[in-house]
Amino acid sequence: MMRSILHAAAVLLVLPAARIPAQITSPDRLIAPPPGNPAEHQGVHPSPDSAGALQWLWQYTRPEPLGEAAGLRLDARFQALLQNAFHQPQSMWGPPGSQEPLATILPLFLTQYGQVRSTDNRYITIDGCVPNFCAASGLLWIDLGLPHPLLVFAAINWDPSAHTTRQPQANYNLWLFASRPLSPDAVPFALTQAIAHWNIRLAAAHRMVPHIQHALLVEPSGDHLPLNPEQIGANVIAPQPGTATPQPISTSHQAENE
To answer: Is 92 within a domain?
Structure first.
């Protein structure tokens, strides 16, 4: 039954729009030499306005399908990219009123179960959740097929006002943080697909699938704009509590734990 549901959902997501043509060349030709010691990249500040400056990201989509999320998080270029792309405040994590910078807490939301995937030779997604608390999770979506790349961070966090995280009736909030102004009426279809496919993968892996009660777009200016959760790819799968098996361990994960 679950396999049929997931297959049907995937088909429905693909049918509404034509395939977007690739805007860049093959990732196999773009993958940079593997980075050495992350300290070698200290002081490097890649601009999210330059597609050419971000081609090094492709190397972390290998090996498929999990990629190398642990290695990406340790790359100083990734930290610099987040600092340059996301300046808006956040209130979804940390003590009340602390307003810890978004770029600081963003990697935390990608830590456990982290995966790096590529789609259509154009998009890169990095997902994961907060260690030992997957009721807080994130998806970083990057469109490298535009003259000026677009980065959007989708962050999900539990609403503790009603049900517990072990109950499928629990509600969650979704924030979209965009690296540049984005209209609520013009959220890229590829981004809504990425969010929907994220939920499908969660269901297939028996991980927590959240019911999104409220969704907000947080502009670079800090303005909050309401979104319809269903129109941005949320709630395509029935909510479920997480019963996941232990996280798959890649070579990078093994190195971290040794």
So the answer is: yes
Mapping DSSP onto H, E and C, the string for 138-161 reads: EEEEEECCCCCCEEEEEEEEEECC
Q: How far apart are CA 55 and CA 63, in angstroms?
A: 16
- Residue 95 has a pLDDT of 74
* Closest-CA residue to 139 (of 161, 165, 170, 117): 117
The residue length of the chain stands at: 258
Angle, alpha carbons 247-251-135 (nearest 5°): 25
DSSP string, 106-122: GGGGGSEEEEEEEETTT
Give the pLDDT of residue 89. 86
Cα 229 from Cα 90, distance rounded (Å) = 19
Q: Which residue has the tokens 């300290």?
A: 39
Residue 42 forms part of a structural domain: yes
Please tell me the pTM assigned to this model: 0.77
Q: How many independent structural domains does the chain possess?
A: 1
